[in-house]
Amino acid sequence: MIKRTRQRVIKRGEQKKEEFESKLLDLARVVRMTAGGRRLRFRAVIIIGNKEGKLGVGVAKGLDVAQAVEKATRLAKKNLITVPIVNDTIPHEVTSKFGAARVLLKPQRKGRGLVAGGTVRIICNLAGIKNISSKILGRTKNKLNNAQATVSALKKLKVKNYAAAPDSSKT
Q1: Residues 74 and 89 both lie in one domain
Q2: Are 74 and 87 members of one domain?
Q3: Is this prediction's pTM over 0.85?
Q4: At what angle do helices 118-127 and 143-156 cross, to 10 degrees?
Q5: Distance (Å, rounded) from C-alpha 108 to C-alpha 110?
Q6: SS3 of 150, please?
Q7: 138: exposed, middle or buried (Cβ count in 10 Å: 0-12, 13-18, 19+)
Q8: N or C: which end of the chain has fewer CB within 10 A?
Q9: Which helix (H) or strand (E) segment is 38 a member of?
Q10: Residue 42: which domain range?
């Protein structure tokens, strides 16, 4: 006897639920000069997040925009990080540098909101941080470098867990 397993068929019009929200941060047309002339490609920078502390950045090039976006999304899902969020903000102040980009992130009290501009605002929103103050200190306006600096700063965050630490005074 052959056992058959039931597979769920996705009907037309019904879409598979996506667990991550994605945002196209930057789309650039890049050119490489060869002996035959210019070779055109597209570079896409995609940020994905679930607004609950998971965040990923993907950068990829492709011959057309759709291919570049698809590759960047796949890479962003591979490079996920977990951002520690305490009371809708970050646990402590942190600064980071990537290339010429420098970013400063500060925690804020409840109700203050996202006081951040451009790239940092998009990343914090997708990560699920609701109250934060930030400043881009570097002189560059390169969105990719600013995004990498912000993600690097979020990777540096640590949460002090006093409940899990053994109490040495009881010995």
Answers
A1: no
A2: no
A3: no
A4: 40
A5: 7
A6: helix
A7: middle
A8: N
A9: strand 37-49
A10: 21-81
- Residue 35 is encoded by which pair of tokens? 């002996």
**Number of neighbouring beta carbons within 10 Å of residue 131:** 19
The dihedral sign for the CA sequence 106, 112, 113, 115: negative
For residue 93, report the phi and psi dihedrals to the nearest 5 degrees. Answer: -70, 140
Backbone angles phi, psi at 63, to 5 degrees: -70, -30
H helices of the chain, in order, are 65-78, 118-127, 143-156
Q: How far is CA 55 from CA 2, 27, 69, 125, in A?
A: 44, 19, 17, 10
Q: How many domains does the chain have?
A: 2
State both tokens at 71.
């590759």
CA distance 28 to 25: 10
pLDDT tens-place string over residues 87-131? 999 999 999 999 999 999 999 999 999 999 889 999 999 999 999
